[in-house]
Design goal:
The structure holds three protein chains of three kinds. By secondary structure, chain B is mainly alpha-helical. Helix content of chain B is 72%, strand content 2%. The chains are: A alpha/beta, B mainly alpha, C mainly alpha.
Chain lengths: 238, 296, 324
């Protein structure tokens, strides 16, 4: 059974409809990437999972359970963690406090998990007492991901984790994504840097105008001449 | 010089402590619930009158009944939040500002209805000041007020930096949206904000009542200095609000000291304008306040 | 017959006061209804208008500044200008920030002005206020003087209404709506938001001063209590919210309606025994506050909801069709 499944999801904000029937799924252990042109509804599709927009039709299910239109605070409790593209950390809290907040819904002791994550993200251990807002872009992104991982989620949603980062950091983030995934957490990720993202992805979806256009394994999409021409362009698509 | 200490600086610090306690509530609501709470002065007013009634009823000292009065006031504030502010959680925040503006008059009219508008005293009799070094005179009530304020501030500091809910308050003040996405129980955080703000407002009001007297305008009169203190310290910075409160209290008092010649520098009738002037100056040159608060 | 005449005079006074409040509500409507600016210091701008016009028209007096005996047209113009200039100053400080700051600052301005009225007794006669203010048409016989004054007020309300309606339908009005609804896209369209807000704020405050001037001449007396935040500021807010924000008809209707309720309830409570009468006065305030809360929550559009100027609506419709 898929961890997460979107079935012909239709919806948007207010009167403006953005998704016109999007379907996708994430299986256990996978990294799945959503790519497509600007305004195709990539981030919106992800927000649809997280209850951040009104779905007028279709279904979202988590481990077979229907979570369509469930409010975000409930979705978190069901084991989905979402890292938004911007303002994804609490800048005035220290690194450790950020991670502690990530564990807010946990009733048990979160300390062991904290230590585990410090091993995955060594720079964070070093700066645990520092205000997260003072870190570099790449390190902030680490805080955001580690914070989301505190809950040991069933699935992690990443909205353009490399947006605005220099190429050096981009590579680092992708390798962190792989590390996190290696611990067993499936990941659904929206990416502008389609080529790099598809390289680490098990599968990918190409969205255009709020609909599925292509789908396949990461390698298939990379090899598909049509996809390559339209969306992979010179590598780092704008 | 000694006259300056006795009649200007110490009263300024006392008044400043009172502003500081009130301003913490203002700055927390402004940064966590994201609105300027116009009813905060009236929360203070309600707390004072509840305390007064408890004192009349029990014959105990105001500071002894203060915890009970604070609890009752907090209860009232939570009911107000539930009935009048919560329906606007997802609306533009200006709607809550209007609602709080309406609450300001509703709470005051309730107080005026039940307790009347005559002046009242919190503690009977005049206390003899303690004298140090032959001439430095501090009245015991001033010592009590400053001491109790320090204790309350330490408690606030502990709450915000050591407890989970306190950290969540800071997190939500950083970003309410992210707090929600993170799974933080934002309603719980909001409740805690009202509890802290309401309790501190009650304390501030009672201290003011101990220092001066009780009347139904005292809440409204406190509103501007409290806002000024919160803005001066930086919105979302509780200790900035404390610093802001102390600065404004002291400046208000020493503004009427005869710095030049023998006349007060500023006609004492305009004391209440000092806070406003400081606030406007901050909004003009540094809206983020002294301690880099938020600007909306 | 006497009783009938008494009722007749009461209705005239009701309509006169309602009309003056309608001017205030229209002023607030420009600020809040059309532009989304929160003015919590209506009382202050109202008092500025009242005092300026009163001091410029009264006969010489030892108690306060004055003796200029200027014609009304001049005193009204100066009253509005002074209010406008102060509004400009406040706007300069606050309009780039969120509405909350303007609310705090305007409440502050009203307080400062009250302090000045109380302290500068040489100019304002302090708490005792300014009396013997001349009143237009007062040389006419009763009730024609009252009727003529009412006529002046109503004519002013109608004139302001048509001016505002014209402005609302103009491109200027549509930019205002755009700013209120979506600041970012309006900014992206290259509109100087602060300038537009400033215009709305200043014009609104000038209307409030005009209403203040009218009330000073109507009552022939003005004291610092006129700046009590309750009576003017709060009532005007309730009037606008109940009548319908962003609808000029709603503002006018709300003003007359709420003033009638306010005034009638005062008559009712004043018949109660003294002690009770004083206390029930607070119940009235409480109830009017509750009315505001109920309208905000349950009927946020008020009695007359906002009507958008036609052309804009058509654009919106075609746009969303296209996107589908």
């Amino acid at each position: 059974m898929s961890v997460l499944e979107l079935d012909a999801v239709v919806g948007g904000y207010g009167d403006t409809q953005i998704l016109h029937g999007v379907s996708m799924k994430v299986d256990p252990g996978e990294i799945v990437v959503i790519i497509g042109p600007n305004g195709a509804g990539k981030s919106t599709a992800m927000k649809a999972v997280f209850g951040l927009l009104n779905l007028s039709d279709g279904k979202v299910s988590l481990d077979g359970e229907d979570i369509t239109n469930m409010p975000p605070e409930q979705v978190v409790r069901h084991g989905v963690c979402y890292v938004p593209q911007t303002s994804n950390i609490f800048p005035s809290l220290t690194v450790e406090e950020n991670l502690e907040m990530g564990a807010f819904v946990r009733e048990d002791d979160f300390r062991p998990r904290l230590l585990e994550l410090y091993e995955v993200f060594p720079p964070l251990a070093e700066k645990r007492k520092q205000a997260a807002g003072t870190l570099s872009g790449g390190q902030r992104q680490m805080v955001a991901m580690a914070k989301a991982m505190m809950l040991e989620p069933k699935i992690l949603l990443l909205d353009e984790p490399t947006a605005g980062l220099s190429p050096k950091y981009r590579g680092e983030i992708f390798s962190i994504v792989k590390t996190v995934n290696a611990t067993g957490t499936p990941i659904l990720m929206v990416e502008q840097n389609a080529k790099q993202a598809l390289k680490i992805a098990n599968r990918g979806y190409v969205l255009v105008d709020g609909k599925n256009k292509y789908q396949g394994s990461g390698q298939d999409l990379l090899d598909d001449p049509e996809v390559a021409e339209m969306f992979l362009g010179g590598g780092a698509a704008a | 010089m000694i006259e300056f200490l006795n009649f200007y600086l110490i009263p300024g610090l006392v008044l400043g402590s009172i502003y500081a306690l009130g301003a913490i509530g203002i700055t927390l609501t402004f940064s966590i619930l994201r609105f300027a709470n116009f009813a905060h002065g009236e929360t203070m007013l309600l707390g004072v009158y509840i305390t007064w009634s408890l004192v009349q009823f029990s014959g105990l000292h105001p500071l002894v009944v203060l915890p009970v009065a604070a609890m009752l006031t907090v209860l009232a504030v939570l009911v107000i939040d539930r009935a009048f502010y919560k329906p606007f959680r997802t609306s533009p925040t200006i709607m809550v500002v209007i609602a709080s503006f309406g609450m300001m008059l509703m709470v005051r009219s309730v107080v005026q209805f039940f307790w009347g508008v005559q002046l009242k005293g919190m503690t009977p009799g005049i206390q003899r000041p303690m004298v140090f070094f032959d001439s430095l005179r501090i009245s015991p009530k001033h010592v009590t007020i400053i001491g109790a304020t320090l204790v309350l501030m330490l408690a606030v500091h502990y709450l915000l930096s050591r407890t989970k809910i306190g950290k969540a308050m800071r997190a939500m003040s950083d970003s309410p949206e992210l707090a929600k996405l993170t799974g933080i129980d934002t309603e719980k955080v909001i409740r805690m904000t009202w509890i802290v703000g309401g309790a501190l407002a009650t304390a501030a009001g009672v201290f003011l009542a101990i220092d001066t007297h009780i009347d139904t305008n005292m809440g409204f009169k406190m509103l501007l200095p409290m806002f000024a203190a919160a803005i001066l310290g930086g919105i979302g910075r509780p200790f900035g609000a404390v610093a802001g409160g102390l600065i404004i209290g002291v400046v208000e008092e020493i503004s009427s000291y005869p710095w030049i010649g023998t006349e007060p520098l500023l006609n004492p009738g305009y004391k209440a304008g000092v806070a406003f002037a400081i606030m406007i100056a901050m909004l003009l040159w540094r809206p983020s306040g002294l301690f880099k608060g938020k600007v909306f | 017959m006497d009783q009938f005449y008494g009722i007749f005079l009461y209705v005239i006074s009701l309509l006169t006061m309602g009309g003056i409040y309608a001017i205030l509500a229209l002023g607030l409507n420009i600020q809040w209804g059309f532009t989304g600016l929160f003015n919590a210091g209506i009382a202050g701008f109202f008092a500025i208008g009242a005092y300026v016009s009163a001091l410029l028209t009264t006969a010489p007096s030892l108690r306060h500044l004055g003796g200029y005996e200027l014609p009304y047209i001049v005193s009204f113009a100066v009253a509005m200008a002074v209010s406008g200039i102060i509004a400009w100053g406040v706007g300069k400080v606050c309009l780039k920030l969120r509405a909350d700051y303007l609310a705090i600052a305007t409440i502050g301005i009203a307080e400062i002005f009250r302090l000045i009225l109380k302290n500068e007794t040489w100019a304002t006669n302090g708490p005792r206020g300014v009396s013997m203010i001349p009143k237009p048409f007062e040389s006419l016989p009763e009730p024609w003087n009252q009727l003529a004054f009412l006529g002046l007020i109503l004519a002013t309300v109608v004139a302001i209404y048509f001016l505002l309606e014209t402005a609302r339908r103009s491109p200027w009005g549509r930019v205002m709506t755009a700013i209120r609804e979506n600041e970012k896209s309006a900014m992206a369209a290259g509109k100087d938001i602060e300038k537009f807000r400033m215009e709305a704020f200043v014009v609104g405050c000038m209307l409030m001063a005009l209403a203040g001037a009218f009330i000073a001449h109507y009552l022939k007396f003005i004291g610092p209590n006129a700046t009590d935040p309750m009576t003017s500021t709060f009532l005007v807010w309730v009037m606008l919210v109940v009548g319908g924000s962003a609808n000029n008809k709603g503002a006018i209707l709300g003003a007359f309606l709420m003033w009638a309720i306010w005034s009638a309830s005062e008559i009712l409570t004043s018949r109660l025994p003294d002690e009770l009468a004083i206390r029930t006065a607070y119940i009235r305030i409480f109830l009017i506050g509750l009315a505001l809360q109920i309208f905000l929550q349950k009927f946020p559009k008020g009695i007359f909801p906002e009507v958008r100027p036609k052309p804009e609506r058509r654009e919106v419709v075609t746009e969303s069709n296209a996107s589908r």
